[in-house]
Structure formats: structure tokens, C-alpha cells
Write a structure and sequence with these properties.
Elements lengths: L1 H5 L13 H12 L11 E5 L2 H15 L12 E8 L5 H18 L3 E5 L9 H9 L6 E10 L18
Antiparallel strand pairs: 1-2, 2-4, 3-4
Helix pairs in contact: 2-4, 3-5
Bound molecules: flavin mononucleotide.
């Protein structure tokens, strides 16, 4: 419960990279997620290469038609969650995978934030060119992304506005 309570979205990363060992721990947590009908059709891509991450940032800037987009917050590592575009549960499966990875990353002290700008980018030529460059089949789209890294800037817990009802 402490890990759930203490997780925060981090939006300012320093230049320190996440180790391969820690990236593997975070991805492993993603692969332990439940998926609809237990299909496990997702692909999880862990990016630690500066070149690949820069290509991805260029691609999303083209896709958004915004050269100034900086929603990766200068992270040095990112994990992409991919789903077959025709999987009816892709949003739910990807959300479960993301939460598992966010909690595991937080547990081992790796800051993280969900990046949502890839959703609905299946038809984007810029994003497709990026996916081709890393040998991803055309039936997949990026459903979610997780920016990862380290920061001294830990935001406070937000006000809890959920409605709950016990009957
Ligand atoms: C579906 C979803 C999409 C999100 N997309 C983004 C995003 O694109 N960029 C961003 O900075 N944060 C994004 N977030 C993070 C939320 O803004 C954040 O979780 C929320 O403000 C609560 O803050 P906390 O994570 O620190 O508790 C997203 C979170 C979720 C669950």
C-alpha cells in the first residue's frame, strides 16, 4: 500500500540514465499484468538508446505538428507499450501494464510519468516510420508510453477527489 500511496508523476528529469538491470525489473512487472482473455498480445519496448529516443521525439513532434513539444520532460529512458490495433481491450490491457510498471519503477526509486500523446497515432506516417525503424509489424500501435529517470523534484500528493460508495 505504501508504494501505491507514494507514487507520483515526475515531470522534470536529470541526465542520469536508468540501468539496464532496473529497466528489466520495470518491464518484468509489465509482463506480469492481467490482459483480457489472457491474450498477452502486447509488445513492451524499453528504450535506453539516446539515438532511438531522439528519433522518437522527432517523430512525435512531426505527428503533433509541434516542433516545440517537450512532453518527454528530458527523460533519458522510455518504455513503449504496443498493442495490436484491432485488440478490443487494448486500452485496458495497456493501462494495467502501465500501472504495474509505474508502481515497480516507484518501488525501486525510478521516477516516471505516463505519456499519452501516442494514442490514436496508428495512422501517423511519422510514428509508423519510427516503428518500422525498430522492426515493429504494421499491426501494432503505441498505446501508451512511460518516461523514466531521476529527479530531485518530487511533487506533493494530489487532493483525492474520487467518489466512493459502500453499500
Ligand atoms: C491515462 C493517463 C494519461 C496521462 N497522460 C499524461 C501525459 O501525457 N503527460 C503527463 O505529463 N502526464 C500524464 N498523465 C499523468 C497524470 O496527469 C497524473 O497521473 C495525474 O495528474 C495525478 O498525478 P500523480 O500521478 O502524481 O498522482 C497521465 C495519466 C494517465 C492515467
Amino acid at each position: 500500500m505504501d508504494i501505491i500511496k507514494n507514487r507520483r508523476s515526475i515531470r522534470r528529469f536529470n541526465s542520469e540514465k536508468v540501468s539496464t538491470e532496473d529497466m528489466k525489473k520495470i518491464v518484468e512487472a509489465g509482463t506480469l499484468s492481467p490482459t483480457g482473455k489472457n491474450l498477452q498480445e502486447n509488445i513492451i519496448v524499453a528504450i535506453s538508446s539516446d539515438d532511438v529516443l531522439n528519433n522518437l521525439l522527432s517523430s512525435i513532434r512531426k505527428h503533433l505538428n509541434n516542433e516545440n513539444y517537450n512532453g518527454f520532460y528530458n527523460c533519458k529512458n522510455m518504455i513503449l507499450v504496443l498493442s495490436p490495433y484491432d485488440n478490443n481491450n487494448k486500452k485496458f490491457d495497456s493501462g494495467c501494464i502501465m500501472e504495474n510498471m509505474m508502481l515497480r519503477a516507484s518501488e525501486i526509486g525510478v521516477g516516471n510519468v505516463w505519456i499519452n500523446q501516442f494514442f490514436d497515432s496508428y495512422d501517423s506516417p511519422a510514428i509508423r516510420a519510427f516503428l518500422n525503424s525498430i522492426d515493429i509489424d504494421e499491426k501494432y500501435e503505441i498505446t501508451c508510453a512511460l518516461a523514466l529517470g531521476y529527479s530531485d523534484d518530487i511533487p506533493k500528493q494530489k487532493e483525492n477527489k474520487f467518489v466512493t460508495k459502500f453499500i
